[in-house]
Specification:
Blueprint (H helix, E strand, L loop, with lengths): L3 H5 L4 H13 L12 H10 L21 H7 L11 E2 L8 E2 L6 E4 L5 H15 L19 H11 L36 H6 L16 H4 L5 E5 L2 E2 L4 E2 L10 H13 L2 H4 L18 H4 L4 E8 L4 E4 L11 E7 L1 E6 L9 E5 L4 E4 L8 E7 L15 H7 L2 E8 L11
Antiparallel strand pairs: 1-2, 2-3, 3-12, 4-7, 5-6, 7-14, 8-13, 9-12, 9-14, 10-11, 10-13
The structure holds 2-oxoglutaric acid and fe (ii) ion.
Cofactor: Fe(2+)
Protein name: Fe2OG dioxygenase domain-containing protein
Keywords: Dioxygenase, Iron, Metal-binding, Oxidoreductase
Protein backbone atom coordinates (compact mmCIF):
# COMPACT_ATOMS: atom_id res chain seq x y z
CA UNK A 1 0.00 0.00 0.00
CA UNK A 2 1.17 3.53 -0.73
CA UNK A 3 1.98 5.46 2.42
CA UNK A 4 1.04 9.07 3.06
CA UNK A 5 4.75 9.92 3.22
CA UNK A 6 5.28 8.55 -0.33
CA UNK A 7 2.33 10.50 -1.67
CA UNK A 8 3.72 13.72 -0.25
CA UNK A 9 7.26 13.13 -1.61
CA UNK A 10 7.64 14.49 -5.19
CA UNK A 11 10.63 12.20 -5.82
CA UNK A 12 8.75 8.99 -4.99
CA UNK A 13 7.35 6.64 -7.63
CA UNK A 14 3.89 6.88 -6.03
CA UNK A 15 3.89 10.67 -6.38
CA UNK A 16 4.96 10.50 -10.03
CA UNK A 17 2.28 7.94 -10.79
CA UNK A 18 -0.39 10.11 -9.14
CA UNK A 19 0.86 13.07 -11.17
CA UNK A 20 0.62 11.13 -14.45
CA UNK A 21 -2.91 10.00 -13.64
CA UNK A 22 -3.89 13.51 -12.65
CA UNK A 23 -2.65 15.10 -15.87
CA UNK A 24 -4.36 12.45 -17.93
CA UNK A 25 -7.69 12.93 -16.16
CA UNK A 26 -7.65 16.72 -16.19
CA UNK A 27 -6.02 17.48 -19.55
CA UNK A 28 -8.38 20.23 -20.62
CA UNK A 29 -9.60 21.45 -17.28
CA UNK A 30 -8.40 24.67 -15.67
CA UNK A 31 -7.10 24.29 -12.09
CA UNK A 32 -9.39 27.01 -10.80
CA UNK A 33 -12.77 27.81 -12.33
CA UNK A 34 -13.59 31.47 -12.84
CA UNK A 35 -16.92 31.32 -11.07
CA UNK A 36 -15.81 29.50 -7.92
CA UNK A 37 -16.31 31.40 -4.70
CA UNK A 38 -13.30 31.70 -2.39
CA UNK A 39 -14.88 29.01 -0.18
CA UNK A 40 -15.28 26.63 -3.14
CA UNK A 41 -11.70 27.24 -4.27
CA UNK A 42 -10.43 26.34 -0.79
CA UNK A 43 -12.62 23.22 -0.67
CA UNK A 44 -11.32 22.08 -4.04
CA UNK A 45 -7.69 22.51 -3.11
CA UNK A 46 -7.98 20.49 0.12
CA UNK A 47 -10.10 17.80 -1.49
CA UNK A 48 -7.66 17.17 -4.30
CA UNK A 49 -5.87 13.82 -4.36
CA UNK A 50 -3.30 15.42 -6.65
CA UNK A 51 -1.41 17.51 -6.02
CA UNK A 52 -1.72 16.50 -2.37
CA UNK A 53 -2.94 19.54 -0.46
CA UNK A 54 -0.40 21.95 0.89
CA UNK A 55 -1.12 22.29 4.62
CA UNK A 56 1.37 25.09 5.29
CA UNK A 57 -1.56 27.53 5.59
CA UNK A 58 -3.52 25.30 7.97
CA UNK A 59 -3.53 26.02 11.70
CA UNK A 60 -2.29 22.94 13.57
CA UNK A 61 -2.25 23.77 17.28
CA UNK A 62 -1.40 20.21 18.38
CA UNK A 63 2.16 20.95 17.29
CA UNK A 64 2.53 23.20 20.30
CA UNK A 65 1.67 20.32 22.63
CA UNK A 66 4.83 18.34 23.49
CA UNK A 67 2.78 15.26 24.43
CA UNK A 68 1.47 14.97 20.86
CA UNK A 69 4.73 15.00 18.89
CA UNK A 70 4.71 11.25 18.21
CA UNK A 71 1.09 11.35 17.07
CA UNK A 72 1.94 14.13 14.60
CA UNK A 73 5.11 12.46 13.27
CA UNK A 74 3.36 9.13 12.73
CA UNK A 75 0.42 10.77 10.97
CA UNK A 76 2.76 12.55 8.49
CA UNK A 77 0.24 15.30 7.59
CA UNK A 78 1.22 18.54 9.29
CA UNK A 79 -0.11 22.06 9.34
CA UNK A 80 1.57 25.15 10.71
CA UNK A 81 1.65 26.90 14.08
CA UNK A 82 1.50 30.38 12.55
CA UNK A 83 -0.38 30.37 9.24
CA UNK A 84 -2.58 33.38 10.12
CA UNK A 85 -3.11 35.55 13.18
CA UNK A 86 -4.64 33.93 16.22
CA UNK A 87 -4.55 34.67 19.93
CA UNK A 88 -4.24 32.55 23.03
CA UNK A 89 -6.60 33.45 25.87
CA UNK A 90 -4.85 34.46 29.07
CA UNK A 91 -5.28 32.89 32.48
CA UNK A 92 -7.13 29.77 31.30
CA UNK A 93 -6.20 26.38 32.71
CA UNK A 94 -6.32 24.91 29.20
CA UNK A 95 -4.78 26.10 26.00
CA UNK A 96 -7.60 28.04 24.32
CA UNK A 97 -7.26 30.07 21.10
CA UNK A 98 -9.36 32.50 19.12
CA UNK A 99 -9.00 33.66 15.52
CA UNK A 100 -9.69 37.41 15.07
CA UNK A 101 -10.75 36.86 11.44
CA UNK A 102 -13.66 34.71 12.69
CA UNK A 103 -15.11 36.42 15.77
CA UNK A 104 -16.77 34.00 18.18
CA UNK A 105 -14.73 30.99 17.05
CA UNK A 106 -12.84 29.27 19.88
CA UNK A 107 -10.41 26.34 19.56
CA UNK A 108 -9.60 24.09 22.51
CA UNK A 109 -6.84 21.78 21.24
CA UNK A 110 -6.28 18.51 23.17
CA UNK A 111 -9.39 19.18 25.24
CA UNK A 112 -10.35 15.53 25.80
CA UNK A 113 -8.03 13.03 27.49
CA UNK A 114 -7.19 9.80 25.67
CA UNK A 115 -9.60 7.90 27.90
CA UNK A 116 -12.39 10.43 27.29
CA UNK A 117 -11.83 10.04 23.55
CA UNK A 118 -12.19 6.25 23.78
CA UNK A 119 -15.35 6.61 25.86
CA UNK A 120 -16.93 9.01 23.41
CA UNK A 121 -16.11 6.76 20.46
CA UNK A 122 -17.73 3.84 22.29
CA UNK A 123 -20.75 5.91 23.19
CA UNK A 124 -21.19 7.14 19.59
CA UNK A 125 -21.26 3.63 18.16
CA UNK A 126 -22.75 1.51 20.93
CA UNK A 127 -25.31 3.87 22.39
CA UNK A 128 -26.04 6.83 20.14
CA UNK A 129 -26.15 5.28 16.65
CA UNK A 130 -29.19 3.15 17.53
CA UNK A 131 -32.93 3.45 18.17
CA UNK A 132 -34.69 5.54 19.24
CA UNK A 133 -32.13 7.92 17.73
CA UNK A 134 -32.51 8.10 13.94
CA UNK A 135 -29.45 7.42 11.77
CA UNK A 136 -29.07 7.85 8.01
CA UNK A 137 -29.37 4.07 7.61
CA UNK A 138 -32.79 3.87 9.29
CA UNK A 139 -34.30 5.69 6.34
CA UNK A 140 -33.49 2.79 4.04
CA UNK A 141 -33.00 -0.26 6.25
CA UNK A 142 -34.69 -2.16 9.05
CA UNK A 143 -31.75 -1.85 11.40
CA UNK A 144 -32.14 -4.20 14.42
CA UNK A 145 -33.17 -2.57 17.71
CA UNK A 146 -29.75 -3.11 19.25
CA UNK A 147 -28.31 -0.77 16.59
CA UNK A 148 -25.86 -1.41 13.80
CA UNK A 149 -22.68 -1.53 15.88
CA UNK A 150 -24.03 -4.04 18.38
CA UNK A 151 -25.41 -6.18 15.54
CA UNK A 152 -21.97 -6.07 13.93
CA UNK A 153 -20.23 -7.16 17.14
CA UNK A 154 -22.83 -9.88 17.64
CA UNK A 155 -22.13 -11.24 14.17
CA UNK A 156 -18.37 -11.00 14.69
CA UNK A 157 -18.39 -12.87 17.99
CA UNK A 158 -20.99 -15.56 17.23
CA UNK A 159 -20.31 -16.05 13.53
CA UNK A 160 -24.10 -15.93 12.95
CA UNK A 161 -25.15 -14.58 9.55
CA UNK A 162 -27.15 -11.38 10.00
CA UNK A 163 -28.90 -9.74 7.04
CA UNK A 164 -30.29 -6.25 7.31
CA UNK A 165 -33.19 -5.86 4.89
CA UNK A 166 -34.20 -2.76 2.92
CA UNK A 167 -37.34 -1.00 4.17
CA UNK A 168 -38.61 -0.64 0.61
CA UNK A 169 -39.47 -4.36 0.58
CA UNK A 170 -42.54 -3.73 2.73
CA UNK A 171 -43.13 -0.01 2.39
CA UNK A 172 -45.97 1.64 0.45
CA UNK A 173 -43.87 4.62 -0.58
CA UNK A 174 -40.40 4.44 -2.03
CA UNK A 175 -37.95 7.07 -3.14
CA UNK A 176 -38.58 8.28 -6.67
CA UNK A 177 -35.72 7.85 -9.06
CA UNK A 178 -34.10 11.25 -9.10
CA UNK A 179 -33.04 12.79 -12.36
CA UNK A 180 -30.42 15.49 -12.44
CA UNK A 181 -28.60 16.99 -9.49
CA UNK A 182 -29.87 16.73 -5.93
CA UNK A 183 -32.35 19.41 -4.94
CA UNK A 184 -30.94 21.77 -2.37
CA UNK A 185 -33.31 22.77 0.40
CA UNK A 186 -32.89 26.41 1.28
CA UNK A 187 -34.37 26.62 4.74
CA UNK A 188 -35.47 29.86 6.37
CA UNK A 189 -33.30 30.67 9.39
CA UNK A 190 -35.09 29.66 12.59
CA UNK A 191 -35.98 32.24 15.23
CA UNK A 192 -38.46 32.75 18.04
CA UNK A 193 -40.82 34.56 15.63
CA UNK A 194 -40.76 31.82 13.00
CA UNK A 195 -41.21 29.01 15.53
CA UNK A 196 -44.96 28.64 14.90
CA UNK A 197 -44.61 28.34 11.16
CA UNK A 198 -41.68 25.93 11.54
CA UNK A 199 -43.70 23.72 13.84
CA UNK A 200 -46.55 23.63 11.31
CA UNK A 201 -44.52 22.77 8.21
CA UNK A 202 -45.39 19.19 7.25
CA UNK A 203 -42.50 16.79 7.89
CA UNK A 204 -43.20 13.65 5.87
CA UNK A 205 -40.97 10.68 6.70
CA UNK A 206 -38.25 10.26 4.07
CA UNK A 207 -39.03 7.54 1.53
CA UNK A 208 -36.81 4.46 1.57
CA UNK A 209 -34.63 3.76 -1.44
CA UNK A 210 -36.02 1.16 -3.84
CA UNK A 211 -32.59 0.06 -4.99
CA UNK A 212 -30.46 -0.70 -1.91
CA UNK A 213 -29.64 -4.41 -1.55
CA UNK A 214 -29.95 -6.51 1.63
CA UNK A 215 -26.66 -6.07 3.47
CA UNK A 216 -24.56 -7.38 6.32
CA UNK A 217 -23.80 -5.23 9.38
CA UNK A 218 -20.10 -5.23 8.49
CA UNK A 219 -20.71 -3.60 5.10
CA UNK A 220 -23.37 -1.18 6.33
CA UNK A 221 -21.06 0.01 9.11
CA UNK A 222 -18.98 1.86 6.54
CA UNK A 223 -22.13 3.56 5.23
CA UNK A 224 -23.14 4.93 8.61
CA UNK A 225 -22.99 8.69 8.15
CA UNK A 226 -24.88 10.31 11.03
CA UNK A 227 -26.86 9.70 14.20
CA UNK A 228 -29.25 12.23 15.72
CA UNK A 229 -28.83 13.67 19.23
CA UNK A 230 -31.69 15.28 21.21
CA UNK A 231 -34.41 17.15 19.27
CA UNK A 232 -35.18 15.30 16.03
CA UNK A 233 -33.81 16.90 12.91
CA UNK A 234 -35.88 16.53 9.74
CA UNK A 235 -33.48 16.51 6.79
CA UNK A 236 -36.16 16.95 4.13
CA UNK A 237 -37.12 20.41 5.41
CA UNK A 238 -33.90 21.10 7.35
CA UNK A 239 -36.05 21.89 10.37
CA UNK A 240 -36.39 20.31 13.78
CA UNK A 241 -39.44 18.11 14.09
CA UNK A 242 -40.93 18.91 17.47
CA UNK A 243 -43.70 16.36 17.11
CA UNK A 244 -41.38 13.54 18.27
CA UNK A 245 -40.79 15.29 21.58
CA UNK A 246 -37.34 15.97 22.94
CA UNK A 247 -34.71 13.25 22.69
CA UNK A 248 -32.29 12.78 25.58
CA UNK A 249 -28.87 14.34 25.79
CA UNK A 250 -26.35 11.97 27.32
CA UNK A 251 -25.22 13.14 30.78
CA UNK A 252 -21.51 12.81 30.08
CA UNK A 253 -21.81 14.57 26.72
CA UNK A 254 -23.74 17.41 28.34
CA UNK A 255 -20.98 17.68 30.92
CA UNK A 256 -18.25 17.82 28.25
CA UNK A 257 -20.08 20.61 26.41
CA UNK A 258 -20.91 22.63 29.50
CA UNK A 259 -17.40 22.35 30.93
CA UNK A 260 -15.84 23.38 27.59
CA UNK A 261 -18.06 26.48 27.51
CA UNK A 262 -17.20 27.21 31.15
CA UNK A 263 -13.46 26.84 30.49
CA UNK A 264 -13.47 29.79 28.07
CA UNK A 265 -12.90 33.32 29.34
CA UNK A 266 -15.59 34.85 27.13
CA UNK A 267 -14.80 38.44 28.07
CA UNK A 268 -11.50 37.98 26.22
CA UNK A 269 -13.19 36.34 23.23
CA UNK A 270 -15.60 39.24 22.88
CA UNK A 271 -13.44 42.19 23.94
CA UNK A 272 -13.13 43.41 20.34
CA UNK A 273 -16.74 42.83 19.31
CA UNK A 274 -18.61 44.98 21.83
CA UNK A 275 -20.96 46.30 19.17
CA UNK A 276 -22.20 42.87 18.04
CA UNK A 277 -25.99 42.76 18.21
CA UNK A 278 -27.10 39.68 20.18
CA UNK A 279 -30.70 40.29 19.09
CA UNK A 280 -33.25 38.15 20.87
CA UNK A 281 -30.38 36.32 22.62
CA UNK A 282 -30.22 39.22 25.09
CA UNK A 283 -26.95 39.62 26.94
CA UNK A 284 -25.30 36.88 24.91
CA UNK A 285 -22.14 35.42 26.42
CA UNK A 286 -22.61 37.21 29.72
CA UNK A 287 -25.48 34.89 30.59
CA UNK A 288 -24.17 31.59 29.24
CA UNK A 289 -23.36 30.40 32.76
CA UNK A 290 -27.16 30.19 33.27
CA UNK A 291 -28.58 30.01 29.77
CA UNK A 292 -26.33 27.59 27.86
CA UNK A 293 -28.03 24.22 27.65
CA UNK A 294 -27.25 21.79 24.81
CA UNK A 295 -30.42 20.07 23.57
CA UNK A 296 -29.68 18.68 20.08
CA UNK A 297 -26.92 17.66 17.74
CA UNK A 298 -25.52 15.08 15.42
CA UNK A 299 -22.77 12.52 15.43
CA UNK A 300 -21.05 12.62 12.04
CA UNK A 301 -19.18 9.53 10.86
CA UNK A 302 -16.74 10.22 8.02
CA UNK A 303 -14.81 7.67 6.00
CA UNK A 304 -11.52 9.00 4.64
CA UNK A 305 -13.02 9.91 1.25
CA UNK A 306 -16.06 11.68 2.71
CA UNK A 307 -16.43 15.44 2.84
CA UNK A 308 -18.91 17.88 4.30
CA UNK A 309 -19.69 20.74 1.94
CA UNK A 310 -19.91 24.38 2.97
CA UNK A 311 -23.09 25.02 4.92
CA UNK A 312 -24.63 27.11 7.68
CA UNK A 313 -26.40 25.57 10.67
CA UNK A 314 -29.37 27.87 11.00
CA UNK A 315 -32.19 25.57 12.05
CA UNK A 316 -31.74 26.36 15.72
CA UNK A 317 -33.90 29.07 17.29
CA UNK A 318 -30.86 30.11 19.37
CA UNK A 319 -28.76 31.96 16.83
CA UNK A 320 -25.73 32.73 18.95
CA UNK A 321 -25.35 30.25 21.78
CA UNK A 322 -22.31 27.96 21.61
CA UNK A 323 -22.16 25.03 19.23
CA UNK A 324 -19.64 22.57 20.66
CA UNK A 325 -17.89 20.29 18.19
CA UNK A 326 -15.65 17.39 19.24
CA UNK A 327 -13.26 15.60 16.86
CA UNK A 328 -12.34 11.92 17.26
CA UNK A 329 -10.31 9.41 15.25
CA UNK A 330 -8.54 10.54 12.09
CA UNK A 331 -7.81 14.23 11.69
CA UNK A 332 -9.73 16.50 9.32
CA UNK A 333 -9.48 19.94 7.77
CA UNK A 334 -12.15 22.31 8.98
CA UNK A 335 -12.89 25.47 6.99
CA UNK A 336 -14.79 28.39 8.44
CA UNK A 337 -15.51 31.70 6.74
CA UNK A 338 -18.27 34.29 6.99
CA UNK A 339 -21.90 35.05 6.12
CA UNK A 340 -21.49 34.02 2.47
CA UNK A 341 -19.22 31.74 0.48
CA UNK A 342 -17.44 34.86 -0.74
CA UNK A 343 -15.42 35.18 2.45
CA UNK A 344 -12.19 33.22 2.19
CA UNK A 345 -12.32 30.62 4.96
CA UNK A 346 -9.54 29.90 7.48
CA UNK A 347 -8.36 26.27 7.47
CA UNK A 348 -7.88 24.49 10.80
CA UNK A 349 -6.49 21.00 11.32
CA UNK A 350 -8.68 19.21 13.85
CA UNK A 351 -7.17 16.16 15.52
CA UNK A 352 -8.67 13.59 17.87
CA UNK A 353 -9.62 15.18 21.18
CA UNK A 354 -9.73 18.76 19.86
CA UNK A 355 -12.85 20.82 20.53
CA UNK A 356 -14.13 23.79 18.54
CA UNK A 357 -16.82 26.20 19.71
CA UNK A 358 -18.78 28.30 17.23
CA UNK A 359 -20.60 31.11 18.99
CA UNK A 360 -22.05 34.59 18.55
CA UNK A 361 -21.12 36.22 15.21
CA UNK A 362 -19.71 33.01 13.68
CA UNK A 363 -22.51 30.73 14.81
CA UNK A 364 -24.12 31.14 11.39
CA UNK A 365 -20.92 31.32 9.36
CA UNK A 366 -20.24 29.03 6.41
CA UNK A 367 -18.10 26.05 7.35
CA UNK A 368 -17.29 22.56 6.14
CA UNK A 369 -14.86 19.65 6.16
CA UNK A 370 -13.31 19.18 2.70
CA UNK A 371 -10.78 16.55 3.74
CA UNK A 372 -10.20 13.74 6.17
CA UNK A 373 -6.48 13.10 6.53
CA UNK A 374 -5.89 9.42 6.00
CA UNK A 375 -3.40 7.66 8.28
CA UNK A 376 -3.72 10.09 11.19
CA UNK A 377 -5.40 7.82 13.74
CA UNK A 378 -3.43 8.33 16.97
CA UNK A 379 -1.84 5.35 18.75
CA UNK A 380 -4.13 5.64 21.77
CA UNK A 381 -7.08 4.75 19.52
CA UNK A 382 -5.28 1.86 17.85
CA UNK A 383 -4.88 0.03 21.12
CA UNK A 384 -7.13 0.00 24.15
CA UNK A 385 -8.58 -2.54 26.54
CA UNK A 386 -9.37 -6.11 25.59
CA UNK A 387 -12.51 -5.35 23.57
CA UNK A 388 -11.10 -2.28 21.83
CA UNK A 389 -9.93 -4.16 18.71
CA UNK A 390 -13.16 -3.73 16.66
CA UNK A 391 -13.24 -0.01 17.46
CA UNK A 392 -9.60 0.33 16.40
CA UNK A 393 -10.29 -1.50 13.17
CA UNK A 394 -13.30 0.70 12.33
CA UNK A 395 -11.49 3.90 13.31
CA UNK A 396 -8.55 3.12 11.01
CA UNK A 397 -10.52 4.78 8.14
CA UNK A 398 -12.88 6.97 10.17
CA UNK A 399 -13.25 10.42 11.67
CA UNK A 400 -16.09 10.99 14.14
CA UNK A 401 -17.43 14.45 14.95
CA UNK A 402 -19.87 15.04 17.79
CA UNK A 403 -21.64 18.31 17.02
CA UNK A 404 -23.84 19.67 19.81
CA UNK A 405 -26.20 22.63 19.60
CA UNK A 406 -28.79 24.54 21.55
CA UNK A 407 -32.10 24.78 19.68
CA UNK A 408 -34.18 26.62 22.29
CA UNK A 409 -33.44 29.25 24.87
CA UNK A 410 -33.43 27.60 28.30
CA UNK A 411 -36.97 27.55 29.66
CA UNK A 412 -38.54 28.29 26.26
CA UNK A 413 -42.12 27.02 26.27
CA UNK A 414 -43.26 25.89 22.84
CA UNK A 415 -46.69 27.47 22.21
CA UNK A 416 -49.16 24.58 21.93
O1 LIG B 1 -17.25 17.50 11.26
C1 LIG B 1 -17.11 18.66 11.65
O2 LIG B 1 -16.07 19.06 12.19
C2 LIG B 1 -18.22 19.67 11.41
C3 LIG B 1 -19.59 19.08 11.31
C4 LIG B 1 -20.64 20.10 11.04
O3 LIG B 1 -20.37 21.19 10.64
C5 LIG B 1 -22.07 19.77 11.25
O4 LIG B 1 -22.39 18.65 11.67
O5 LIG B 1 -22.91 20.65 11.01
FE1 LIG C 1 -22.09 22.46 10.63
Amino acid sequence: MTSTADLLDPSSAAYKKARRQFYKATKNRPAVEQDWTPFRTAEKSFKARFPPPDLSGVLDLAQLDPSRQKEIERGVWKGSTEPFPYRRLEGCERSICVVPAVPGLVILPSYLSQEEQRQLVRWSLERQARGPNPTNLDIHYRVPNEGLWNAYIHQKTTGEEVTIVPKALDSDVVEEKSSGPRQLVDNAPASVETYESLAQTPKPPPAPSATVPPSSPSSLLYKLRWANIGWYYHWGTKQYDFSHGKGDIDRDLRHICKSAVEAVKWDQVYDATEDFDWGEDGNGWKDWGETYEPDAGIVNFYQTKDTLMAHVDRSEVCKTSPLVSVSLGNAGIFLIGGDTRDTEPVPILLRSGDVVIMSGPCRRAYHGVPRILEGTLPAHLKVGGEDWAPFAEYLETTRINVNVRQVFPKGFEAPS
